[in-house]
Amino acid sequence: MKPPKPVTSALLYLDAVSVVFDGFRALNELSLTIGLHEMRAIIGPNGAGKTTMMDVITGKTRPTAGGALFEGVHDLTRLDEAEIAELGIGRKFQTPTVFEMHTVEDNLRLALKADRSPFPTLFARRSAAERERIESLLERIRLEDSRHRPASELSHGQKQWLEIGMLLAQEPKLLLVDEPAAGMTDQETADTADLLREIATTRSVVVVEHDMVFVRDLGVRVTCLHEGSVLAEGTLNQVSANERVIEVYLGR
Ligand code: ADP
Ligand code: MG
Predict the structure, then answer these.
(1) Which of 49, 90, 142, 207 is an S-S bond match for 167, by CB 3.0 to 4.6 Å?
(2) Is the minimum distance from the CB of 49 to ligand 1 under 6 angstroms?
């Protein structure tokens, strides 16, 4: 059999996805596309379905109806969580899950060990390549000066960055980030927006966030969810001027 032809050029295509829990519609025919190297901000009131959407994309929750295509060919609704991670979809949860007793550098090293690369390499060459990757990750997540500190000594914001670095070690094509700015200082929030913008030059990023200052800093297309579907989509200015968005979300 010939492989199916891509029906979309989008990296991620959600097509009328519904998720029903005991008769309650957490997602209601949600359709959304994310382009290659696009960063998208998702906003919306509590219960809008933002986390459920990420659960569908990562295979944690099966949709009751609808489709989810990755790279135009992979049907995410038929794959399990491990297979989806293997395709290059990484997810960052709200609470960082770093190894507290290990140093920053060792945390990154452990994440690299779990590398998806199938190529066996000579040990020496591998360790040189590994050092280079750790250097570039440390620089990217702004933790070069903290490399020898145990993760337990990092600030909340720094732990979030370390976890982002550990996800980047897996070279995801799509990174999902749930409320990264929660609990961060203003400076950390601004630095996180910078970090995500850098990441989105080479990968796609979907970021759920309530902090509107942060969303403005990201400067990307915004989708507002409400009752499991898209209420509005556009620039932050367009979305925040939408009367329904003001009514259900921003105006509260
Ligand atoms: P958000 O992340 O936008 O706040 P969620 O996706 O967490 O929203 O939740 C959407 C709705 O689905 C909420 O009303 C929530 O109570 C409900 N929900 C989420 N997960 C489950 C579940 N496993 N069982 C039943 N209801 C759920
Ligand atoms: Mg949520």
Answers:
(1) 90
(2) yes
Length of the chain: 252
At residue 122 the predicted structure's pLDDT band, cuts being 50, 70 and 90, is low
* H helices, E strands: number in the chain: 9, 10
**pLDDT, mean over the chain:** 91
Residue 231: CB within 6 Å of ligand 1? no
pTM of the model: 0.91
Q: What percent of the chain has pLDDT above 70?
A: 91
Report which DSSP code applies to 139.
H
**What is the arrangement of strands in the sheet containing 229-234, beginning at the earlier edge strand?**
89-92, 174-178, 204-208, 39-43, 221-226, 229-234
Angle (nearest 5°) at CA 204 between 233 and 66: 60
Q: Does ligand 1 lie within 6 Å of residue 51's CB atom? A: yes
Q: Is 226 in the pocket of ligand 1 (CB under 6 A)?
A: no
Q: Which residues, 6 or more positions from 29, have their beta carbon under 8 angstroms from its beta carbon? A: 16, 17, 18, 65, 66, 228, 229
Closest ligand, as measured to the CA of 18: 1
Question: Helix, strand or coil for residue 196?
Answer: helix
Per-residue pLDDT tens digits for 205-249: 999 999 999 999 999 999 999 999 999 999 999 999 999 999 999
